Batch of 4 targets.
Target 1
Amino acid sequence: MRHILVFDTETTADTVQNLNFGAFRIYELDYEGQILTLIEEGIFYQDDLPERDPDGYATLREYAESHTAPIDHRILSISIADRKLHFLSRSEFVEHYLWRRAYRYRMGVVGFNLPFDISRIAVDVGAARGFYDGGFSFKLWEDNDHWRPRLRVKHLDSKKSFIGWGTTPEHKWRGLFIDCRTLSFGLTSTPHSLESACRAFGVEGKNPVTEHGIITPEYIDYCREDVAATARLFDAMLREFYKHPIPKLAHQVYSPATLAKGYFEAMGITPHMGRSSVPDDVLGYTMSTFFGGRAEARIRRVHVPVTVLDFTSMYPTVGHLMGLWDLITSADIQAEEIDLDLSNVDVDYCLNPDNWPNFVGIAQVMPDKDVLPVRAKYGPNETPNIGINYFSATEPFWYAIPDVIASTLLTGKAPKVLKAFRFRSAGRAPSLQPVSLLGRIEVSPEEDFFKYAVEERQRVKNSDPQLAALLKTVVNSGSYGIFAQVNRKKFSQPTPGKLLHRSGVTQRISTVKEIPGEYCYPPLATMPTSGARLMLALMERIVLDSGGYYAFMDTDSCAVTGTDPDAIIERFDALNPYDRDLVPHMLKREFDGYAYVISAKRYVLMDAAGNIVKSSEHGLGYLMAPEKGRHKAWIERLWRAVLDDEEPEWGTFPALMPHSVSSWNLYNAFRTLNEKKPYPQQMKPFNFMMIGQMDPMYRDPKGGLLIAPYEADSSKWGHVTWVDRNNPVKPIKRPPLVVFQDVIDDYAVHPEWKFEDLNGQPCIPPTRGILRRQWIHAPSATTVGKESNSLEGTELLDAEGIAPVLFGKTWDDWLPLIMPFETQCITDRIVSDRQMRRYRRGDAPKPNKMKSIIQACALYAWRDLRKEHADSILNLDPLHVLQTWHHIKSETPR
């Protein structure tokens, strides 16, 4: 790539954001791919602009004739006349620059938020297929006699998209597109606007503009400066990127994980999946041990004096203590079956760093009121969530060894371990070599990178903040993220593959698969998160033993109360692996003041005067700001309304969510509003839209999301036209929407479903005070996750061990036991009335349905018995529960 095209578009200020005009520049690059010389600049306009806005067109034309491009004619030996701005229509721009240069001569295309600009210069759009399935296929040129590729865009998230030309057997060029928004995120791990990215990379940004949509000389200057700023940013980022001695190209950088993988590759560290000696069935067991970070509220809706303690670089620290770098750099990883001895587990045992390398493994446990991570639907209509609760089950479960040790620490008794494996390295990988981070410091694979990176970051954070930021980015991704990466991919035809599963490995065929990332490897993914949960369990044990308690935990922090935080910090110094001159304490004292906690991740921190110091955005950040100004400002005002039980002046405004029209399904929902309109006048892909929430009292169970074109002025939100995404044929005006006061009222009492109050009652909206763990009883387990819905046939049933005979009984045996609960099953839609009549006649349900009915009936029976006969149902096997219920109720079936 020797040349790049940098362009930007400006649009109308209405909801359709039709193209008005744009600006572009052509740069020649040097042999390293860095910007050398500006060689062309121009302005292009929408084809219908002369008729639609003749004054604006005249302003553009006059501007182009009276301005020149800042080309250094001494270098290029061109005349002043040759430096004039090109003035082209959109059709001419895509013909000369997108087709002839970007496609035929393989010139790179650069922009900031490229998907939006591409959708502006298109003339039509369709649904993309294949690799870009779910995305858009843009037509850039009018009909012609020769084959022209369409430009395809698949949105991944707010920071990145896949962009490429359509291909045929004769035309394979996918193109080279670099979105500076994506590259800036990949290099800094921070989502940026163009302005903030320019600041981050130390280049001149763009000038502000007061009004959009009206073509003036000042507005044209603004657009040209946008292009120049994007080019300066791209140049600075390329210079930064090429300091990384990694075998990657700039257009391949989609996230910070790319840098981590690049450095691993440069060190000679190769992925373990597919080459390690760990059997597939053990990898399947290990997959089921993966849980996320621990987040919970334990003192609810009460102002509590707290000290927030934060762990230094939790995942890298745990990775170092457990010796995971030896596994990462090993020639092979092996699974060794062991007898797991938990007899010595106590606080001192866990505070001894010499013991942590022995925690790297998994264990099969028969849960019996052990404190373990449990993924379940804790509340009504809740999605599966993770709680650290007392857990009993009638079948064994696999857990990471740190979770088993944490349970021993918290309960004082060791779980019943049936089998255990420890992962160990088998020799150092050959051909490992040192690399130089940013060309400034050399890192050897012989040294534990986790420890080195944390210490070096502390050493340079003031003198070299750029290097410090890189160290943070690479070590966080390299210690955890890249090993847990799984990509979801859809195939046009069923594709054979293996399902790594809790019961082993199942062969399956599916059109949708979860493809492991390049460095994905279950043992290296589950150990950091389980080690972090052990750290928090150790914190809990020490705090409780000291007579204190905690208001909340959040992944790597804990808000303690009623105890001496300095004493806790000193206890954890025993595990501090770092140079004490650089990291004096592994635990940092982050905040002293007061906390008010509603539920997991929903809390606010205040000083002694009641001023908000930190307010959580969890459960709020998705909403459009109801007032102008900083986004954080209205979040703090909402929290103030919660704390003071007052209604803000914008409480009656609809609570709307902003969203980009980022998928074909969302775009297709606007087909009624777009019908019979030419593409420029349509709601287009990557326009912003608004999502409204229908008031539950008026919500149609069959309805979908209400969506509408974006409107920035909150005073007009009550007057926009909505469509139902699932039924977009008829526009809806003035629907009864959830308003901000509804959000505040619900947010203020959002339950912490994972726990119960001290009386053993579920945490419901009015609950206040200290919460305690529930006792979770699982008759059996089911598969959850993105992939579970696409498993087909009986493969999942076989993997789960489900058969027409469940728990030792056939359907005829179960039928009289569940009959008293059939009405509840029908009411809760476990089964339909018609199905139940058929099953009552003797037609056995399919295994999955049979299991669902039995589990539901056992749960109904258990809830009924729990009120007065809790001691009678210690064994939570479904058969035992139902038989106990019939015995106590004197309804023993014949």
Target 2
Amino acid sequence: MRILLSLALVISGTAAAQTTVPAPIDAVDPMIGTGGEGHTFPGATAPFGMVQLSPDTDTSCEIRACYGHAAGYRFEDPTIQGFSHTHFSGAGHSDLGDVLVMPQAGEQVRLDPGDPRRPGSGYRSRFDHASEVARPGYYAVTLADHDIRAELTAGTRIGVHRYSFPAGRAAHLLIDLRTSLYNYPGKILWSGLHLRPDGTLTGFRETRGWAPGRKLYFAMRFSAPLTGHAFVDRDTAVAYKGFQGPGRGSDAVAEKLGRALEAQLDFGRLTAPLEVRVALSGVDEAGAVANLDAEPGGFDAIRGATAQAWAKALGAIEIDAPAPMRTNVYTALYHALLAPSVWSDADGRYRGPDDQVHVAKGFTFRSTFSLWDTFRAEHPLLTLVQPAQTTVDVVRSLVESRRHSPYGILPVWQFAGRETWTMIGYHAAPVIADAYLKGIRGFDADAALDAMVASADYAPYGGLGDYIARGYVAIDKEPEAASKTVEYAYDDWTIARMARAMGRTQIADRFERRAGYWRNSFDASTGWVRARLSSGAFRTPFDPTAINYGSDYTEGNAWQYSWFMPQDEAGLIRLLGGDAKAIAKLDAMFDYDNSKLDYSHAEDIAGLIGQYIHGNEPSHHVAYLYNFAGAPWRTQERLAQIVASQYKPAPDGLAGNDDLGQMSAWLVFTALGFYPVAPGSNEYVIGRPFVDRAMLNLPGGKRFTVIADGLSATNRYVAGVTLNGAALERSYIRDEEVRAGGELRFTMSASPNKLWGSGEAARPFSMSKR
């Protein structure tokens, strides 16, 4: 582990002393976001691991709304139902929660979870947060009703349980294949259990959930021999006639197929903790067994290896800041390193969007792409804090997914290799373009660009045919048309940028024209981005504060989407009437009085500051837009307001869904003092730092240091900036300047410097002015 040293000034100011600060891994608190609207999980996982082994406190939508339990665990819940092996971190939708394991002690084994409001009614158990330990790669809790100490750890494709049973009482495990997050009737299509002669338990299940027809396989081994077992099918309905699964036949000691399977495993009275090694595969049971063999070792060995992996990954940034902020930022970095998760097996095989098995050659296939969220800051962050191979894996996985897609387009919102068609846009395009324009290679750029163009030209998707023909998506033909028009235009700009850099001028010219289509949804008479009818008229009635699913906008309203043209904010400012009017409109957004508005019907609308909604992604770049109007000092004020109100080191410390790392990546960038407003521009807009000092340990051994001289709660403004000792008058920094290594130094002040960054030449990129 890396031990960082920070200088603590003696109060008298006459001396300084060195004090040790916790290593990055010790500063992470996985409980942040497990309450409120964060939707994170506290369990064990490796960086980008296939397995997310975590407690589920409630998997029944009949007891509570599924939305609040999207990650399986909710801090407010009093009981744990069991420990399952797959979870999303901060998603706004429920699924996964595969292969639930629950230990039990004593003579009676309960087969149903029971009612969380009635202790003892089933196998679920009460627990106390005081007994929990959550660290990167490790989770532990005491199950009070069973008097069992449960510990969890995970490798890349395996999870390892360790259960300490009370002395003198029989030890049992219940494997429940019926449960799943968002577990509505009929979700489990088919499942199987097979006990092999060597004591390995293998199995599978197919689910019809958010991702249709998802198949998952597992292999499970135990540190103690079974003394008994029972496979039970709790469903008496007619057997499913589709995918039957690979029966083991004579190779199996016992097997059972069905739609509601459970396994009771008995171990007698144990004299040592029981360890359970579990591997997953999306391919077949043989793949799960091979994945199990590929990561040998018991609980402590796997825990130690994963701790080292986390120490290395988190060591990409060295941070000196007060403990609460340091915990916030390192936890944010931790959350940003959970996805896109590994999906290919140790031998390279994976199940793709066509439900067929393919082989990843020379890269690791990744899935869990929440692209509408993560193109903004999550993927740009990974290009800086991870080895280039991570981004190469991402790009190649996206392109390979397009090759195997029945529709021939890039993923929209994919997990476990399956497409969900959730959200809008073709935001794999900016992820690929941003990587290419930053000089990351190792993938077929021509194939990648062809995939981007194919996605942007696929007329049946989301009104794209109308968009191509008319220059906008028509609201009388396609819902959320205003949002789709401006998001498509941004994606088109990234395609143009990459094509231009590759010398493919015809593509560049065509998509540069399309990049300006955002103007076709801008109503100059009102100053809003609005939905238009096929006739060309803007739809009425119009209320810029209205938020309704399937309306003119996607998870937002005109206040947020009227700022979404990150490729051309200068063009927007001119249409608004200039700098002063743009600043006034930004201020009106943040200062809006919401007291007469009710957004309780909209699940993702959280973290409101006026009409700025930090809990959802369309607002994430908006605080930085003052820079484009020549008022960076106003950005500095707004960032202080956002960080103070939207993040804290507590279970309810995230104002909204973390969305597979986007909320967290925003904080990491903002804490460093800059943010990628327009991925693909190769620029970061300068805000203000929230840490005293940070060092980016970049790929290639280079280091980029950020220093904030005089930073304090009072000194929230930037008085001046230097880059490698020379005054920096512009309010942005280039990606190549960061990658080259060096020093970005801020001088902080209690009063704003209204001249710094105010000139036209000092402002960040906009396509219409360069």
Target 3
Amino acid sequence: MMKQRALSTTFLTAATLSLAGAGLAAAQVDVITVTATKREQSTQDIPLAVNAMNEETLEELGVDVFTDYLQQLPGVTAGGSGPGQATIYIRGLASTTPNLTTAGVAGLAPNVALYLDEQPVSQPGRNLDVYAADLARVEVLPGPQGTLYGASSQAGTVRLITNRPDPSAFYASSNFAVSFTEGGEMSNKVEAMVNVPVADNFALRGVVYVDQQGGYIDNVPGTRSARESARFRAAGTMRDNGVPVSATRAGFQSTADLTNVTFLDANNSDLLEKDFNDTTYSGFRLSALYDFNADWSLTVMHMQQQLDSEGVFFMDPSLDDLEVQRFEEDELDDYFHNTSWTLEGRLGALEMVYTGAYTDRNTDQRVDYSDYLFVGQYLPYYICDGSVSYPGAGGPTGTCQAPNLFVQSDTRTKVFTQELRFNTPADRRVRATFGGFYSDMEVAERNDFTYPGSVNAISFDGVTTGFAPNYPLTNTAVTGEIGNASPGYFSDPGPFPAGVIFRNDVLRTDQQYGIFGETTFDLTEQFSITLGARYYDIEVDLVGSANGSFFNFGQTDDAQVFGTNISALYGPNNAFGNPDVAATDGFIFKGTLEWRPTDGALFYATVSEGFRPGVLNRPGGASGPGGYTVPFALDTDEVVNYEFGWKTDLFDNQVRFNGNAFMVEIENLQTTIFDPSITNLFFSDNAANAEIRGIEGEVTWAPADIEGLTVVGAFSLLDTEITEVLVPTNDVLAGSELAFAPSYQANLRARYEWPMENGMMAHVMPQITITDDSVSDVIEINKADVEGYTSLNFTTGLTGESWSVELFANNLTDERGEIANNFVFDRERVTVIRPRTIGVRVGVQY
């Protein structure tokens, strides 16, 4: 009740202020032109919530990478665990923490669309981490944008708009930066841009960058053994997040006498390193613009980027500050190249835009998986010998090898998109945007789960509990309890490398077709109505297999060890007859009424829909309690957004106040569950219905009597709730909040510029960012608190005719601001903002 009262009070105050000061002279607040509606328009002329940062603002804020610009936007958060692994959330529409083992092929589709210029680059599991070099602006569109942007724009759309080649003049620039992080390593970057007019109608533009970001997390000494396995924990054991271990998740041998078992320790002494989470972004972008004539032009862009990262970007709060214990190497090699083309022209009165793009991405990642020990009930089967796994009458005996575990994840992603759209003249009383869209994405992912100790398991009575040292499992003969299977896809015919216990080897194909349109009717000079719709047809296909050595009683005297295929094979030859595709089609709609009572004031009311496609389930068909069956394919989860907003320029346009109040109804929210009372494998389902209520606002003040001062502030208030649970599990509870949905977020910055006697300009800019607590997941056993924080930044500098120098200090108070928390393995792993960092930036224009 108190939250609802606060929301109502804020809304009424906003509306009163808007009406009191609307509509006067020329603006002093900057006008930002965006293409959010696929037309060029000022943010103030669009009946739609749009947060935009232009090139000047991006430079002032020092925005370089993914999380930099997200932290500037209340209502926008990011889950994940480091560079190349982040997932965007808008308005609290989030459910499940991203996890490497389901990162690509089995992962849910993102519900926020990420665009690079005109092309969608959203990918399941891990978004494309595009370095923010030579950007014209960043546009964030909260709320469903499905009619224009299609699937995965369910919660909103983020667009990165690059600078286009300019035929009018030659110019170039370079930027350098060096910084020092408290208790961490030095960072440095260099970026250079050149714009070359080859002819009056032809220009080239290029940018190159290298950004080396020093580490600040320490890998410290530690040991652990299989004694800590979930196999030996009792029901009722209290987790750190306050949720007790249920009987279905208690260890099979929780009361066993382990006196006669020898546990060998994993020891990370060879991997100890201070500041081991180094990251380097390097790449280039080259674009060309050719004007055929006054009506037609072609822009072609090619980009390549390499992201190399070591270590992890989270800490263990049970250790000292910024410390973690890792027992295997963590490495990420993420490379992509992208080519796009845009043909723009005019067919009579119609503006035509045809755009296409092709992206090829290779991601090779090695992840320490040793934390799985804390939830892995079956782990002793693979690294223990004797009767630890199969105790006799005398109790368990034998040796458990050191629980060193890691995953080698190799992912190849190819995305091809095309869109053709038309705009009718913008000065007509009836205006329309309409077109068609096609996308084809392939994600080939092979995850090798490696338990090095399994090759050291000692046989007893002729039985080996893990892979024998010289007999790796091959893919050519997979037999077991389910009989013979004929897999139709293998990226690697084998044999498996030594120590590989499970291999997920799957190709996912997402194909999407869409036809869309929006039409605006000017009913009067003050009132307009916009109606939009989109037809979509999407198929998600999986082929491949998930194989392992579960209950692997192999022949130790033969050239092969035969394993058991523990799950259905995907594709037409799958062992359990699962459907081949998750297919969906249908329509979504949008309606907007706008009112312009005076110049400088716009009010709008919108009802809009969004959706996210489903995916196939590995354990589809498994039976659960009460007649429940794990679905072979998920349904789409759908949202309906009801929104009222205002855009106002007040007090001689010295004040801009934009905002909106919204309510979102969510049906069939997708999430990923592990509940042994249903099945012993992770599965995804439409687990719940939910509601979101909120208010967002942004205020810009440029006082006429204080020349050079600009104050910008923004806020977000959220109230989220799961209203109904659709799956018979205690892992999701009605009345709980959604993930990554702080009740409030706000930021405020003030920039003051003044001229010096020598012709230079000086500036200072303090900034404060505030965020409330949230939770990391909607799954109760995986849920951990993400603590709120307050962060202070400060910059000051000088600007000359062709140069600039700036001193910056980020996180002045050295706050451990939590941006994510992962509790999937029963241990908190907290991702924090970079500690206090002080540096200098130098820019030169040529």
Target 4
Amino acid sequence: MTNPVIGTPWKKLGRPVSEEALEGVDKYWRAANYLSIGQIYLRSNPLMKAPFTRDDVKYRLVGHWGTTPGLNFLIGHINRLIADHQQNTVIIMGPGHGGPAGTAQSYLDGTYTEYYPEITHDEAGLQKFFRQFSYPGGIPSHFAPETPGSIHEGGELGYALSHAYGAVMNNPSLFVPAIVGDGEAETGPLATGWQSNKLVNPRTDGIVLPILHLNGYKIANPTILARISDEELHDFFHGMGYEPYEFVAGFDDEDHMSIHRRFADLFESIFDEICDIKAAANTNDMERPFYPMIIFRTPKGWTCPKFIDGNKTEGSWRAHQVPLASARDTEEHFQVLKHWLESYKPEELFDENGAVRPEVTAFMPKGELRIGQNPNANGGRILKPLNLPKLDDYKVEGVEKYGHGWGQTEATRRLGDYARDIIKLNPDSFRIFGPDETASNRLQAAYEVTNKQWDAGYLSEMTDAHMAVTGQVTEQLSEHQMEGFVEGYVLTGRHALWSSYESFVHVIDSMLNQHAKWLEATVRHIPWRKPIASVNLLVSSHVWRQDHNGFSHQDPGVIDILLNKNFHNDHVVGIYLPADGNSLLAVSEKAFKSTNMINAIVSGKQPAPTWLSLDEAREELKKGAAEWEWASNAKSNDEVQVVLASAGDVPTQEIMATADKLNKLGVKFKVVNVMDLLSIQNASENDQALSDEEFTQLFTADKPVLFAYHAYAREIRSLIWDRPNHDNFNVHGYEEEGSTTTPYDMVRVNEMDRYELTAEALRMVDADKFADEINKLEKFREEAFQFAVDNGYDHPDYTDWVWPGVRTDLEGGNVAAAINTAGDNEK
């Protein structure tokens, strides 16, 4: 296995939880609550030593209390379970505003000081710890990457379960208590996340324990699941495949030790049930179990003042953020804050120097079993490079023999063959994910070596092909789930590829944004977080070949979202537009070797020409863009009348047909292809992009450039505004036009077809000289469209065109035969 087995997992305790351990949990809870309040309120005098005044309170009170005490309670008990069972554990903190609980946990288990030595275990260190929270030059208010033990920030709600289940895949020793906030539980992605239990196998995967934290309120409104009846709530989760156990505390005056005893007994009973599930799974004869989950009901803001200014606070929405917003401004609120802090008896928790007393943490796990030090929560520590097969075994052959532009190959099918053998060589550390589109996007070769993991009922091979309770392909019709699974998988030290239709990637724009922010924070500020494998996203079934599905499926805008993340030379985003099968293979190899990135690879799945040999593709990828000298007819930049540039497979096809027409008209041009979109970004903004000298060599210093681009034209303009010759770029891209139509009409309505591009190039060179040719081209555009209207298919002038460099004297057949067989694997 890639991930280590830490401790001796899945062992029953065999005895009641000791009183000493429970006393430790109670001290932990009080200490964590005190630390959490201190982070929100205090800038100095962290232990309230006299004189403790309003000047010790922060000017800006930022943070959230409402969910925090419940989280502190749960984390204390999770620590106890880890220590008693020596259980390999990572926690997911779904409630978005539980940051104080996460940092308090790391401070108490010692890992915070290990990573940040200036946060010492004394009064001075405690003051720094408090002051930095939600403070200028400090740390965020969420369970962020800055906090040891975190793999889920919670700043964006809905993905706690997706991350948790992704983390346990191929990780059979890992236990992940996933705490879900009741506000978060109202989101669509979280509602979908409950279905994840049908996509794991307890024999080969770890166990997720969902803990629904019901405290009744969001920012200002009640939460749905907190208000429905117990019977309805239990039926809902039982229908989702869980055995729910409800725990209620804090609504009366029950002694805290009694509450701890009740929860510890329940937790042990549930963990025994989990151990039984794991044991039964190893017999290979079990049906999918009803996995346990906990419904954890507590008052919102548990243990804070019950009333403030006569208004109910504990157990109401008023406890959500900062219950005492005027603690610095009014003596009355300051005194309430003082009594609140004193209620946790800090003198019993911290010694005279401000250090946490040993008895507070004696019950907690040690070493790598600590939540903040578990290697799975810093996945780069255990990441191993993929064992990649030899890329040449998958290349599209024929270019060297028959010429550039040869054949008709489905590029993503070749990637499927490559991915199949990556799984074969890395059977428990590489997965393919997809929302019911793995085969649709031509990656189905994986099924030769693995199955789709599925544990929700099986009918027969005739109806349920390639499905089994274990496998390295995961599918659910939810982009949220796929992205969440992939993030959880790579954050815990593994590798993945997932694919989606281009228009549907927009569903997870905000997830990509949040993961990029996690990577940016890591790259800039957190050297102790080791590089993790990249999120590799194959964007297929793209805008230019969604002619059959129509306008709703035509949107390349995910590129725009990712471009927003490419600042400060962090290099956490890669955007690749391979023009053919060999280029896709070269890009994929680079992506699978990369770390700390989101690699978006945009590639069509329809048969298309192969323009480059694999060696040529690799050479172009080194710089990201290159002149195709074999397609150019100008021998130098001085001779060039127009530069023909492209990025993307269909735009390249159209620009190459344009080159053919211009050549027949005697126009001198050079052809430039861009494979790595960010390679042309302003050198002033990207230190890995082409230099201005290299850019000028490709695009010339002063000649017109006609650029056919896969997505929105403004994206190219935003990338090159500081480049030489940028004013001479004429960019054609997707113009938000489309329908259910033909491939030709799709490019026509967006001014991307070869006839319009040729006419545009002629206008750029000499509109008067070529006026007659321009008129002919414009007229033929309409004739070709009418042909499609009349016949239901495209004009032969469009469909039958082949790059003139392709040989027609093929041995054993003609070019048509080569086109028909080019998709076959010739290794």
